[in-house]
Write a structure and sequence with these properties.
single chain; alpha/beta; Purple Acid Phosphatase, chain A, domain 2; 5-stranded mixed β-sheet; about 25% helix; globular; UDP-sugar diphosphatase activity; 5'-Nucleotdase_C; Metallo-depent_PP-like; nucleotide binding; 5'-nucleotidase activity
């Protein structure tokens, strides 16, 4: 293909606040106009006959198939897609990954099959692979997830797990399909998928032991060059869009464009052959645009992310000259799938699709059968950090309680191994709060929503020095999506810290049962299989000795804890304290 010409692309301004409440307010009318708070004014050459290609996109859907406030649900999402495609048949529905995994109980309890079925029925055309697509391991992705997207055909399903930077271990051999081509009214659209290069630290290492996750920028530019080299034998595209499961933690466009992260490198360094970047992973909404080397002055590339859980839809219009198949205009924004009615209630802005609604209803019915079993009771709300778990950098009652559960499961009289003394729980493994409701009852569904990953509990020996190193690793490496991940810790273990200290010098003291911990003292600890393998950049766990898989699933340990305790109270805060 000859070199792409980019003419008069507009500047897109920031869109979408971080909160779900804000996301309900950003939407345009249900006529599918772009977000009025982030107007994209296409300024294409009106003298050229053009074909308008549209993309509507989601990211981090995480199995939210049922409606829940601003989470519109799969049927309403399908209604939005249907409306866009009805108005312009040259429309693609895409995702930037994490369609499944960390799902609500309805989907989780059925291996996320209802989500896959619902998204396919909604008209999903392609998706980048996200880190959560690897939650069940690479074999599960290859042999179950991808074929289900393809109605039993793995080749057809490969378009729903695009990963150009995923390679066979020790090689540059692609482990997944790198891109897909879609022909729309004579225009070939190339969709490249990449996933965060931190994936190896975000999923259980054993499930991806045969994979490497390479540099996204290199992979995206390599594939874009291939699709633009004029050789039909290796694929050619008139339009190229990158679907990346990577994003920013802020909605401020100026900050995003300047950030010193791998995502910042990606959006600044992406070749001019890539026309737009649809993002995910960080669950933040924004619609921005940035200058690109080689493009005419004032021309900028759209970069966007549509919040999370199907609350918002990316909208992208690409005008392509019919004669030369060159991109001559772009228009982008975000659209909320719900709105606030006059009575203050949240209502859908698009008509649900009955076929998809039927899939969701069947999934809900089956989940109720599994999830209705009562397992215990709580005395009050037990929550994660921040609103709806939005702050993983602070101590939480739920994080400490789950650590208590894991300690109990590996130290009570029924445990056959060496009893443990300290437990650690990662905040990213907690996906829902435990709320008192009307009577404090806790069901299987409630418990499963808190710990949906099915990790096993691992025990190991760690020295005091190693425990201190683990606590220091709560302050994440530079370039990470979150600067701190606060570990839940079990009763009997406490520490103090200086939040303003230099990296590696935050922890000022540690105690066990009120006694200071010496660096050489060895403790038997328990954590989940994800952390045990060094997940979330807690690499020191992988240095533990006498490691043993207890064989207990974290969810089962939680259920048995509830069944053995008549009433469960919120675990107290203050196990970690700022050094005064």
């Amino acid at each position: 293909m000859s070199k792409k010409i980019h003419l008069r692309r507009n500047t897109l301004v920031a869109a979408a606040a971080l909160t779900l409440l804000a996301s309900t307010a950003i939407g345009a009318p249900a006529t599918a106009a772009p977000n009025p708070n982030a107007p994209g004014q296409s300024n294409k050459d009106q003298n050229q006959p053009t074909t308008t290609i549209e993309l509507v996109g989601i990211n981090d859907f995480h199995g939210r198939i049922e409606a829940n406030g601003a989470e519109a649900g799969a049927a309403v999402l399908a209604g939005a897609v249907k409306e866009y495609k009805a108005k312009n048949r040259n429309t693609l529905f895409v995702s930037a990954g994490d369609n499944i995994g960390a799902s609500t109980f309805t989907s989780f309890s059925q291996q996320d099959n209802p989500t896959i079925d619902a998204l396919k029925a909604a008209g999903l055309d392609a998706s980048a692979v996200g880190n959560h697509e690897f939650d069940g391991g690479f074999d599960d992705l290859l042999n179950r997830v991808i074929p289900r997207y393809g109605n039993g055909n793995a080749e057809a399903g490969a378009d729903y797990a695009l990963g150009a930077n995923v390679y066979a271990k020790g090689t540059k051999t692609p482990a997944l399909k790198e891109y897909t081509l879609k022909k729309l009214n004579g225009v070939t659209v190339g969709l490249i998928g990449t996933v965060t290069d931190q994936t190896a630290s975000l999923v259980t290492p054993a499930g991806i032991s045969g994979l490497d996750f390479g540099d996204q920028l290199e992979a995206a530019n390599r594939v874009a060059a291939q699709l633009s080299d004029g050789k039909k034998s290796n694929g050619e595209a008139d339009v190229i869009v990158l679907l990346t499961h990577e994003g920013s933690s802020t909605s401020d466009c100026a900050a995003i464009g300047a950030e010193d992260t791998s995502y910042g490198d990606l959006i600044r360094g992406a070749t001019g052959q890539i026309d737009a970047i649809i993002s995910g992973h960080t669950h933040v909404g924004y619609s921005c645009a940035y200058p690109v080397d080689g493009w005419a002055e004032g021309l900028e590339r759209p970069v966007m992310q549509a919040h999370q859980y199907g609350t918002t839809l990316d909208t992208l219009k690409i005008s392509v000259a019919k004669k030369h198949k060159k991109v001559v205009g772009l228009e982008a924004g975000l659209v909320s799938l719900t709105t606030i009615a006059s009575d203050g209630s949240t209502v859908p802005r698009f008509t649900p699709v009955p076929k998809v609604a039927t899939i969701v209803e069947a999934a809900l019915a089956q989940a109720e059968v599994v999830g209705a079993v009562e397992i215990g009771a709580i005395s009050a709300d037990i929550t994660r950090g921040g609103t709806n778990g939005s702050d993983r950098g602070v101590e939480s009652t739920l994080g400490n309680l789950v650590a208590d559960m894991h300690l109990w499961a590996t130290s009570n009289e029924d445990f056959g191994g060496t009893p443990t003394q300290i437990a650690f729980m990662n905040p990213g493994g907690l996906r829902a709060d435990l709320l008192f409701g009307t009577d404090g009852t806790v069901t299987y569904k409630d418990a499963a929503s808190v710990q949906p990953f099915g990790n096993t509990l691992f025990t190991m020996d760690l020295t005091g020095a190693q425990i201190k190193a683990i606590l220091e690793e709560q302050w994440q490496p530079e370039g990470s999506s979150r600067s701190k991940l606060h570990l839940g810790i079990s009763e009997g273990f406490t520490y103090t810290y200086d939040p303003d200290a230099a990296r590696g010098a935050h922890i000022t003291s540690m105690s066990y049962q009120g006694e200071p911990i010496a660096e050489e003292t060895v403790f038997r600890i328990v954590t989940n299989s994800f952390l045990a393998a060094g997940g979330d950049n807690f690499f020191t766990f992988a240095q533990g000795t006498n490691v043993a898989d207890s064989g207990q699933i974290d969810l089962v340990a939680g259920i048995e804890y509830f069944q053995s305790h008549t009433l469960v109270d919120p675990a107290p805060l203050g196990r970690a304290q700022i050094d005064q």
